[in-house]
């Protein structure tokens, strides 16, 4: 890499870092304002801060494509404003060479984002989820809204949260007989022992009879269920908090059970194609810097980048969810806006050059 290539790459990289920090700061502030109403005696301000901080790695990975677009506009825009790009072009440096130098740092941070999505964000997101769930456990209540419902053999099971160690939190087991509910078991935690054996802890069992209702409390109860702990953990997580390997594993399991795994497949492709999306947006930014934004102000470039980024993100969500709704391969829905940006960027850069 020549000195000019390094100079262009460093300009784009520093601009990307500035944009990423600003986006994360805005996300932190807006999330804090939105979630502050949840603070109470069990869910303190310190817990809220922990939850937001634990979710920042996932947000960083999610913001990389948009930050790449705005960062490239700012970095190359600054060079254009000082006529440095004009000098480079006059010296015979082609646009594709400038674009290649700009893509190199973006590719680096995109690969770093993939590592964060695979190894850091899932673990941190799990900790954030458990902190939120524990507020209900400490208050002695169940929030039957944020967990997962499963059919386990003949029972219907609700799990509020789970971790990778095989521990389930706030478990409710509904045992029907035909159309009649015969018993409900509520456990603070459940731990996997071996095979299909689990142990329920701090259990309250309510039994329904034609003429009475009995309630029994005990510390430990054995629970036999033919569900693997890793599947229970994955089922209790939102798709956007799972790593690529976990998304692929659980999607494969759901397909084997003839269940709908499209939300997990959709999230898999959104994450897997994120580096290509970042490079496609860099090409769009490159064509804009040498085109309509050549003499634009920095504020104009940032505004344009925000508009293009929002349009791209909305198109990604729209086509992705539409593909799930019409039972179409999610990879095609996710690829449509990426391919459009990639093709448009290549055509415009070729015309500028």
UniProtKB/TrEMBL annotation:
<feature type="transmembrane region" description="Helical">
    <location>
        <begin position="95"/>
        <end position="116"/>
    </location>
</feature>
<dbReference type="InterPro" id="IPR005495">
    <property type="entry name" value="LptG/LptF_permease"/>
</dbReference>
<protein>
    <submittedName>
        <fullName>LPS export ABC transporter permease LptG</fullName>
    </submittedName>
</protein>
<dbReference type="InterPro" id="IPR030923">
    <property type="entry name" value="LptG"/>
</dbReference>
<keyword id="KW-1133">Transmembrane helix</keyword>
<feature type="transmembrane region" description="Helical">
    <location>
        <begin position="331"/>
        <end position="349"/>
    </location>
</feature>
<feature type="transmembrane region" description="Helical">
    <location>
        <begin position="268"/>
        <end position="290"/>
    </location>
</feature>
<dbReference type="GO" id="GO:0043190">
    <property type="term" value="C:ATP-binding cassette (ABC) transporter complex"/>
</dbReference>
<feature type="transmembrane region" description="Helical">
    <location>
        <begin position="302"/>
        <end position="319"/>
    </location>
</feature>
<keyword id="KW-0812">Transmembrane</keyword>
<comment type="function">
    <text>Part of the ABC transporter complex LptBFG involved in the translocation of lipopolysaccharide (LPS) from the inner membrane to the outer membrane.</text>
</comment>
<comment type="similarity">
    <text>Belongs to the LptF/LptG family.</text>
</comment>
<dbReference type="Pfam" id="PF03739">
    <property type="entry name" value="LptF_LptG"/>
</dbReference>
<comment type="subunit">
    <text>Component of the lipopolysaccharide transport and assembly complex. The LptBFG transporter is composed of two ATP-binding proteins (LptB) and two transmembrane proteins (LptF and LptG).</text>
</comment>
<feature type="transmembrane region" description="Helical">
    <location>
        <begin position="12"/>
        <end position="33"/>
    </location>
</feature>
<dbReference type="GO" id="GO:0055085">
    <property type="term" value="P:transmembrane transport"/>
</dbReference>
<keyword id="KW-1003">Cell membrane</keyword>
<feature type="transmembrane region" description="Helical">
    <location>
        <begin position="63"/>
        <end position="83"/>
    </location>
</feature>
<dbReference type="GO" id="GO:0015920">
    <property type="term" value="P:lipopolysaccharide transport"/>
</dbReference>
<keyword id="KW-0472">Membrane</keyword>
